[in-house]
């Protein structure tokens, strides 16, 4: 499930083509993943496809990476410049609470495979202060709380739940943050390895954590940043 407009849709289609080129089926649904009705429709479609396979398929990995929220100060001299209730509620619901709703629906539908994995993308903003990042910071902190609670409740079913805290990564989501140029510059200056985190770094860590030998790792936040956070 992804949310792309006309300008970025070709990238999603290119990734789907790469997956199919490896001999796998790719189902990309362009939708608002925080919409409950669309979530139900997408899961209906996925469930039907998996039921038709031999043997019937299950969800082995769920990666939650919803990056849509309000970037405004919590207080401002002009009240119109500060985040309002609707914006704060939306940010928390989309970037944190939606993880719970996706897991609930998959669990009730019995779609999780034994020894499955749930990952949620968090950030250092959950415990660091960044200008205008307050609403998203609160959402990331809430997300990490959800991760711990879900890990406790899903442990008896063999489902591991962990957060992935990537370092500063030059992505379209980062470039929507005001002052992202400073993030990149400072990140490069202070990073012990002299480079930013890449999407390949993060993907490699997630792939490794899907190995059956990592089944005892759950309820934690795993930092994938080459040491960035410890020197910041």
Characteristics of this structure?
single chain; 232 residues; alpha/beta; 4-stranded parallel beta sheet; 7 helices; 12% strand
How are helices and strands ordered from N to C? Answer: HHEHEHEHHEH
The CATH superfamily turns out to be NAD(P)-binding Rossmann-like Domain
* CATH overall fold name: Rossmann fold
Q: Which CATH class is shown? A: Alpha Beta
Q: Which structural class best describes the helix and strand composition?
A: alpha/beta
**Structurally, how many domains make up the residues?**
1
Kindly provide the radius of gyration, computed on alpha-carbon positions and rounded to a whole number of angstroms.
18 Å
Distance between the termini: 33 Å
**Major β-sheet annotation:** 4 strands, parallel
Give me the count of strands: 4
Instruction: Count up the helices.
Output: 7
Low-confidence stretches: none
CATH architecture label: 3-Layer(aba) Sandwich
Net shape = globular
Largest beta sheet: what is the strand line-up? 1-2-3-4
> If you average the pLDDT, what whole number results?
94
Portion of residues in beta strands equals 5-15%
Helix content: 40-55%
Characterization of the model:
Helix 2 packs parallel to helix 3 and helix 3 packs parallel to helix 4. The two termini are 33 Å apart. The chain is of the alpha/beta class and 232 residues long. It has one domain: Rossmann fold (3-Layer(aba) Sandwich), CATH 3.40.50.720. Helix 4 links the parallel strand 2 and strand 3. The chain is globular and about 60 Å long. The chain has seven helices and four strands.
């Amino acid at each position: 499930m992804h949310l792309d407009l006309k300008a970025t849709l070709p990238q999603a289609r290119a990734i789907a083509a790469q997956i199919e080129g490896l001999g796998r089926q790719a189902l990309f649904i362009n939708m608002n993943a925080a919409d409950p009705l669309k979530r139900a429709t997408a899961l209906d479609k996925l469930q039907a496809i998996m039921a038709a396979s031999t043997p019937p398929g299950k969800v082995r990995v769920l990666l939650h990476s919803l990056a849509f929220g309000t970037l405004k100060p919590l207080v401002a001299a002009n009240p119109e410049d500060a985040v309002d209730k609707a914006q704060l509620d939306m940010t928390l619901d989309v970037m944190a609470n939606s993880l719970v709703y996706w897991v609930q629906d998959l669990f009730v539908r019995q779609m999780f495979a034994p020894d499955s994995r749930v990952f949620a993308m968090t950030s250092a903003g959950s415990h660091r202060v960044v200008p205008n990042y307050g609403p998203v910071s609160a959402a990331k902190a809430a997300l990490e709380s959800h991760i711990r609670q879900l890990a406790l409740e899903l442990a008896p079913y063999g489902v591991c739940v962990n957060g992935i805290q990537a370092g500063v990564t030059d992505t379209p989501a980062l470039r929507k943050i005001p002052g992202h140029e400073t993030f990149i510059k400072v990140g490069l200056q202070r990073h012990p390895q002299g480079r930013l985190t890449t999407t390949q770094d993060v993907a490699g860590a997630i792939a490794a954590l899907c190995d059956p030998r990592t089944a005892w790792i759950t309820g934690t936040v795993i930092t994938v940043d080459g040491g960035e956070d410890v020197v910041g």
